[in-house]
Amino acid sequence: MANSALLVMDVQRDIVDIADDGSGYLPRLRRAIDGARAAGLPVIYVTIGLRPGNPEVSTRNRVLTAAVEGGLFTEGAPGTGIHPAVAPHQDDILVTKRRGSAFSGSDLDLVLRARDINALVLTGIATSGVVLYTLCQANDLDFALTVLPDACLDTDPEVHRLLTERLFPQWAAVLPTDTWLKTLSR
C-alpha cells in the first residue's frame, strides 16, 4: 500500500473569508483531517506566505500581483494564518510556499521524500488554484493522487465542478470525503 499524506492547502483566514460560501466546507475538511490523523496519516498544511516587500513577486505574475495589492499573503500577517477551525496539531507538518503549487518555492518535496511518501490526498482552496497546480506537478512527479472534491473549494462553483468531474479524474481518484474515510478503515 502507498505511503500517503493529506495535504491541507491554503486554508488561511483571508482565503477562507473570500471563498467560503457557508456550505459547510470547514466541517467537511475537519472530518478529513481528523480521519487522516486517526488512520496515522501525516497531515501537511501548506500555506502561501510572501516576505514583506514581496521580493518574490514579479509584476508579470498577474494573480500574485493582484493578491499583494489586495494586502494578501504577507508572512506573519493575521490573515495569512491557518483558519482556526482546522488548526494544525503539534505533530502536523507546516510548509510555506511562494507560488500556486504546493511544491513551488517550498520544501514539500524534501519533506515527502524524507518520509517516503508516494501518495497524496489533496484538499484546499482554491480548486482552480493550489489544488489544480499541485495536482499537475504531483502527477508529473509520479505521486499516486486522490482529490477530495468536497474538501476543496473555489469561488466559482462551475469551475470547481468542471475540474473535479472532468479534468481531475484523468490523473487522480476523486472521492467524496466520507467515501475516502471508509477506505482508511479497511
Annotation field: number of helices: 7
Q: Helix proportion of residues, in percent?
A: 25-40%
Mean pLDDT reading: 95
Instruction: Summarize the helix and strand pattern as letters.
Output: EHHEHEHEHEHEH
Strand order of the largest sheet: 3-2-1-4-5-6
CATH superfamily: Isochorismatase-like
Class of secondary structure makeup: alpha/beta
Q: Which segments are poorly predicted (pLDDT under 50) over 5 or more consecutive residues?
A: none
| Distance between the first and last residues' Cα | 12 Å
Shape, per Cα inertia axes? globular
Tally of individual domains: 1
Percent strand equals: 15-25%
Supply the CATH class.
Alpha Beta
Q: Count the beta strands.
A: 6
CATH architecture: 3-Layer(aba) Sandwich
Q: What is Rg?
A: 15 Å
Major pleated sheet: 6 strands, parallel
CATH topology: Rossmann fold
Keywords: Hydrolase
Domain Isochorismatase-like: 4-178
Pfam family, one: Isochorismatase
GO molecular function: hydrolase activity
What is the compact description of this entry?
This is Cysteine hydrolase. This protein has 186 residues and is α/β, with parallel strands linked by helices. It has a single domain (4-184), classed as 3-Layer(aba) Sandwich (Rossmann fold).
